[in-house]
Amino acid sequence: MSLTSLARKVRERRVDVPFIPVALALESVTKQYESGPNAVAAVSDVTLEIRPGELIALMGPSGSGKTTLLSIMGGILRPTSGRVIFCGADIGQMTEEDRSRVRLGHIGFVFQHYNLFPALTARENVEIALDLRGVTGRSRREQADELLEQMELGDKVDVYPADLSGGQRQRVAIARALAGTPSIILADEPTAALDSQNGRVIMTIFRALAHERQRAIVVVTHDNRIIDFVDRTVAIEDGRIKSDTVARSPEASAASLNGEIIRSRRVRDWAVAP
């Protein structure tokens, strides 16, 4: 059954839709910073659920609280109030050591400026993340090479970041984020420094990871070009959620996914792999 026909049956209620558990939940989350005698709220009373298999765009102008919210989701920042629930536990109430374990074991981060180590090859940049997760020896090297091959960078494993294009560096960063098979991927402006073609390749990879491998992915962006790739668009302004919009329809999303995977030769074979 094709994705398009399955989506049509779901929409027409001719197949059962299984319950999809929540990967991450924010409940009335607020983050305040002290500014002289006043407190400034970077995030105010945000409630949001993120599910496996979803690709979500978190959009808003500069200073709207997008990156602060992403940092709270990833356990980097503690909320001033509210709860961040992952696997039934409130991340915000954990010790720093326990939050580090959650980040290391379950969350992958992708950054706008790649954050690759310039003195290390593509393989070595991925191996560092695997080493932190306890993967050593030959297995570490093999897994790093496999992740880079999945990003169509099998011929770049020994190349340094300075000799890679912007799109290739971002794909190395994605491979590093996938080390240890995290269930949640948080990406901060991953297409901002890329041209249109490379931006589409990156978003096609993210969508395949969400739809084919059931990762929960949140992309912070102000790039309207990515809207056609995502399942939900959450708009934030002045630290508050203004809207939470689902993609046009399940059928439209499935048809778009099929077309994009077919058109993107670089990730086609990998995207449909089990």
Secondary structure blueprint with pairings:
Blueprint: H1 3-11, E1 24-35, E2 38-50, E3 55-59, H2 66-73, E4 81-86, E5 89-90, H3 96-106, E6 107-111, H4 122-132, H5 137-150, H6 166-177, E7 184-188, H7 196-213, E8 216-221, E9 232-237, E10 240-246, H8 250-263, H9 268-271
In short:
With 274 residues, the protein is α/β, with parallel strands linked by helices. It has nine helices and ten strands.
Describe the structure.
By secondary structure, this protein is an alpha/beta fold. The chain has one domain: P-loop containing nucleotide triphosphate hydrolases (Rossmann fold), CATH 3.40.50. Helix content is 37%, strand content 24%. The chain has 9 helices and 10 strands. The strands form 2 sheets. The protein has a 6-stranded mixed β-sheet. A hairpin with a 2-residue loop joins strand 1 and strand 2 (38-50). Helix 4 (122-132) packs parallel to helix 6 (166-177). It is globular and about 55 Å long. The chain starts with a helix and ends with a helix.
